[in-house]
Fold Protein-export membrane protein SecF.
Amino acid sequence: MLVKMKFPITLIPAGTQIDFIGKKSIAFVFSLVLTLIICVLFFVKGLNLGIDFTGGIIFEIKTSKEVELKDLRDLLSNAGYKGATLQNLGQADTILIRIQPKDNAEQKQEVEEVKNLLVRHLDKQVEFRKVDYVGPKVGKDLIFKGFSATVLSLICMMIYIWFRFNWQYGVGAILALAHDAFVTLGFYIISGEEFNLTSIAAILTVIGYSINDSVVIFDRIRENFRKYKLTDVVKLINLSLNETLSRTIMTVLTTLVVCIALVIFGGEVIYGFSMAMLIGIAFGTYSSIYIAAPILLHTKITKL
């Protein structure tokens, strides 16, 4: 007779009693100071907006042989087109190039300059399949739509939490999500990495991860409220955070491993996206524990 032995993975010992709520004031001050710093830098330094938002020229080319994107990127950078983005379109010999126009340069003149540069580098063996120009008006429209998508996602998340739990939980969730989105935006401001549509995707992904983490904690808090009706609210929230801590750590570690792999091996093209995800997910876990849950105390929550 075979006996199956089960060895569950337990990162946090049973009965752990970390006083998370006791440190909420320190966490609130830290988050407030960080938010103020990001606000100041936003108005002083601003975002390094990419072609998606500022406008630019898009080339779709086909070469007779495989070309290293890094070599082309360096070529364009040396010619004054820093921040150019390149990607393969399905095949190694088909490349999409986005460049931001130089200051006070005419569109037609720059198109011809880039064409001549590529022809010289690729020994005339290049086919220009498409040349498009993204104007500033389109860029402003994309900024508005990106901002609207982020705000709408926050509102939808708050409504979801409101209906699934109570309005108090919706307040905690929206503050935590806004905090995570702002910190992720702060990464782009501080680092100077290009902010484009991919950056919007990174912020929305961080929001999705953070709300999932908060829902797990909220679920345990609600369960403990029903189970221990006479226990102090502070003790119940601390108990819930400790009971879900092992799951929280395992989830964030496995996710961060993937993000770190993308940062190291993903290459220059997705570096900004990968770093934003890495920082955003780390702060998403922090906000679920030190913002979303403690906020419940300030909403005078008593029962579910």
User: Anything to note?
Assistant: Strands lie at 48-49, 56-63, 85-89, 91-99, 126-134, 194-195. The chain is about 65% helix and 10% strand. Residues 21-48+138-298 form a domain with the Multidrug efflux transporter AcrB transmembrane fold fold (CATH 1.20.1640.10).
